Amino acid sequence: MLKIEARQMFRSNGLIDDFAVYGAPDDYLQFAKIIKTSILSEKSATLGTNSTINLEIVLSDNESQELFTSLQNESDEYFSMKEWQERKILRIVGSEKILNELHLFLVSLSSRGEGYSYISEYSENYKYSNNSPEWRLHVENT
Predict the structure, then answer these.
(1) pTM attached to this predicted model
(2) In what order do the strands lie in the sheet with 115-118?
């Protein structure tokens, strides 16, 4: 099961989220599978993790050329700093083409052996949104 570590970092443009994701090759294959499930069903799909943050895959109905991710709560509404600090859903949003590219990237990542890659490397054809947090995806052999 994937483990997600969330960090908040101060940058010149404010406080930003940053993630380190750890898992075995099979964990990344499971992640890829849930993305494919979301694409085929045309519904959001959730993947539980070994941390307090779960992944939610959302198939967008537009033809955006970017993959977008963000740490949110269920309603995307924050009426206090406490609600902001209790965000537990790492949403992954993209069109069918974008999510298919991410699926292929994760399958490839699972076969590379130990090491890490960044989610922003998911595609040579499509962009990773500048407004999204960076993810470092660690593959660990168990």
Answers:
(1) 0.93
(2) 3-11, 14-23, 134-139, 115-118
Q: How far apart are CA 76 and CA 137, in angstroms?
A: 25
Q: Is 108 helix (H, G, I), strand (E, B) or coil?
A: helix
What value does the mean pLDDT take over residues 1-21? Answer: 87
Pairing verdict, β 14-23 and 45-47 = unpaired
Question: Length of the chain, please?
Answer: 142
All domains in the chain, ordered by first residue: 3-139 (3.30.1360)
Euclidean distance between CA atoms 49 and 72, whole angstroms: 16
d(CA 108, CA 102): 10
Per-residue pLDDT, 28:
98
Side-chain half-sphere CA neighbours of 111 within 13 A: 5
CA angle 99, 68, 90 (to 5 degrees): 90
Looking at residue 44, its amino acid is S
Model confidence over 81-123: pLDDT tens digits?
Answer: 899 889 999 999 999 999 999 999 999 999 999 999 999 999 9
